[in-house]
Amino acid sequence: MTAVEPDPGSATALRLHLADVLTMSGDLRTTPWRSAVETVPREVFIPGFFERVDGPRETMWRPVTPELVGAEERLELTYTDETWVTQLNQGITAFDTDVPIPGVPTSSSTLPGLVVRMLEELQVEDGNRVLEIGTGTGYSTGLLSARLGSELVTSVEVDRRVADHAVRSLSAAGYAPVLVADDGLLGHQPGAPYDRVIATCAVRHIPSAWLAQSRPGGLILTTMLGWLGASSGLVRLEVIGNGSAEGTFLGGTDSFMPARPHAAPKLDDSVYSWIEEVGTTDRRTVVGPEILDPWDGWTSLFIAQLAIPDAQLLTYGIDDGPVLDHIVDTSQQSVAIPYRTPDESAAVRRAGPVDLWKPVERAITEWRAAGSPALDQFRISVSPDSQTVWFGDPAGPLSWKLRTSA
Ligand SMILES: C[S@@+](CC[C@H](N)C(=O)[O-])C[C@H]1O[C@@H](n2cnc3c(N)ncnc32)[C@H](O)[C@@H]1O
Fold first, then answer.
1. Which residues pair with 328 in a beta bridge?
2. What is the pTM of this model?
3. Residue-number span of the structural domain to which 344 is assigned
4. Is 320 found in the same domain as 198?
């Protein structure tokens, strides 16, 4: 199909409509950010993207480009409040295939509602210098540039091809922020000190470079995640100085793809055969498998993840058996499989030298005893030596030190 360029007026109308939608949803709250949304052409940043479609066996990704679906449909989809995946498997774009394909999303244009909610939560003021981590398509970088002026914006993208594409798109839209192709967990010292740091990829702990490159009183906004897959929603920290900061969890179920060095190591297929080969034992438990469901806005899963930070979640069934959540810690060669028995009691099947479910039971029991507080009741304290997520008392039973080594 040949792409016919849509009427540029329709892009303007769609942008205004998007601003209305985001205002009504409560994501867009202030006039300067509304002007930015009305100004920045999202279509320049995502010429092509993937739409998720559920295949019979696995999720597939349908390429959406002007050539494949027509320029009008591509433009209309661009201005919906959706996340559009722009890269699969660290390299495949929508222009590389004509048909739906499987893959793992590795870059995307986050739904505008979340982008602007984060920008509002960043509490920028005129003249602030901002460091953004995870440029992606550059759309959020464009909004920051429209709001503050390109000269105050630095954005870091780990993937060079993605970064190059963002530079071209930003330039086409009339913006020239500092764009760095590097690991954003290292920040970007030449532009420091920053008044604000915002990450659109999720971290396991707050990178020390972000603290060191922030002005005291500056704010860091990010999502945090762990290897069981639970996200913190947004977290905002105020930088104290000398490597310290205090933060609050803002609530919500927002999540981002992991910052590349903070992602869980890939498990190879030998894990499956290992689990089948080692002897397992079963025991009763007071904490059933449902705590691994993100039914309560992530909190119980997030707590399990704090209790066993090196464990990963694998969900699969063996032969024709039920699909079960397997908690695997390869560093301890141990696995725990919580399940419900036919009489609906909670039980756990475990293998390996360490009972991985024990710390989860302790943590969840303490959490329940405290009244099952939601994540937005938790805080994070960061010092040069440690990072602690806590509820009630940083030294109390509901406090966990984060892994800061990776
Ligand atoms: C959700 S996308 C970014 C969304 C984008 N800011 C927007 O406006 O929609 C996350 C991006 O973070 C990038 N990323 C992952 N790890 C990173 C890291 N360590 N440093 C910088 N960028 C990283 C990914 O390559 C991806 O492009």
1. 312, 335
2. 0.92
3. 265-369
4. no
